[in-house]
Amino acid sequence: MIPMVNLKAQYAEIKHEIELGLAQTFDSCAFILGPNVTAFEQEVAAYLGVRHAIGVASGTDALHLALLAEGIGAGDEVITSAFTFIATAEAIKYVGATPVFVDIDPNTFNICPAAIANAITHKTKAIMPVHLFGQPADMTAITALCQQHNIKLIEDCAQSFGATINGQQTGALGDCAGFSFFPSKNLGAYGDGGLVVTHSDDTAETLKQLRNHGSKVRYYHDLVGYNSRLDEIQAIFLRAKLKRIDDYNQARRQVAHRYTTLLADLPLTPPVEDGLGTHVYHQYTLLSEHREVIMKALQAAEISSAVYYPVPLHQQAVFKETCQGLQLPVTEKIAQHCFSLPICPFLSEADIDKITSVIRHTLTHQVS
Ligand SMILES: *Cc1c(COP(=O)(O)O)cnc(C)c1O
After folding, report:
1. 228 ligand 1 Cβ < 6 A
2. Given Cys at both, which of 125, 130, 277, 331 links 76, Cβ 3.0 to 4.6 Å?
């Protein structure tokens, strides 16, 4: 079976480095906020071009703590996309704010700046764009809206590690940004992990307290915090992969471009790069009227495929009441026709060719 992500091939390459790091950690027994977390935070801040990087327990926590640190709370509205993973909106709910879902661009599936502008009210306290599938959202337009209306910009970078726009990394453009190190993400740990980044010294101080029981000095607690620290052992894995992240993302782009070339003459819509930033292809997501037939044929040929996301957030049971009557026509249409193919830095050309020929065969012989 060709998996969506081949984590085994990646591990083989960094095994030695990881074994060394693990041995050192077991020798020292510094398991919580140890030297690897500190070193990773410095290395990742330098890579992203931000003043501060704070390791936390997951991407969901990263977004939650970012919203808290920016002072978003009850009665506030946060504008975001409904075409994303549930965690984006969960984080907004955790702080007592209301997610306001707006429609997306039909080509990039990223949040539409004109739709954001229409949704801004006196209650809007933040915009949370998601750089979906690894392609940066239109940050020039979104940043302008935030400045014009004096609202916070909190980026959901869970899928965009290493993507750049206007010469800057995603995550370096907002007041705060959250990253996820879920194993399948572009920079993935071997378990859960996340990161909040910010340029602000004050916000960074608050974030450090929030992730560690509201404490600056051990056993002195200034606010109600959480147990949400990046694990020391996960930091070992992340340091090894961070060194190679540009190669990984470049390899993903090559996989994507080979797919797009091989699928170019077929009646389906490959991902569109809008040219505003670099797409790091967390997912390779296409549109087809015949998604079900294609996915069935892939399955029969032992090739994985998946739908991200079959149900937009405003149509999820959890938001049914609050979103009653809300229509997001582009989001709804995309959710009905999108599907994603396997992608990772280690997908071979032979596998890409096999996958595309199954799709070609299906579209030429099985659908009319
Ligand atoms: C993965 C993801 C998250 C959550 O990250 P976890 O580390 O799984 O908590 C948030 N937002 C988006 C868009 C994601 O893809």
Report:
1. no
2. 125
Whether the CB of 87 sits within 6 Å of ligand 1 = yes
Strand-pair partners of 165: 168, 277
Domain ranges of the chain: 7-103+111-242, 245-366
**Which stretches of the chain score pLDDT less than 50?**
none
CATH of 245-366, one of 3.20.20.140, 3.30.70.890, 3.10.20.30, 3.90.1150.10: 3.90.1150.10
**pLDDT tens across 285-307, in order?**
999 999 999 999 999 999 999 99
Say how far apart CA 300 and CA 354 lie, in whole Å. Answer: 13
pLDDT at 2: 95
Q: Which atom of ligand 1 is nearest to the CA of 132?
A: 13
Burial 179-204 (b: 16+ CB within 10 A, else e): bbbbeebbbbbbebbbbbbbebeebb
Ligand 1 neighbourhood includes 36 CB (under 6 angstroms): no
What is the position in ligand 1's atom list of the atom closest to the CA of 130?
Answer: 13
How high is the pLDDT of residue 367? Answer: 80
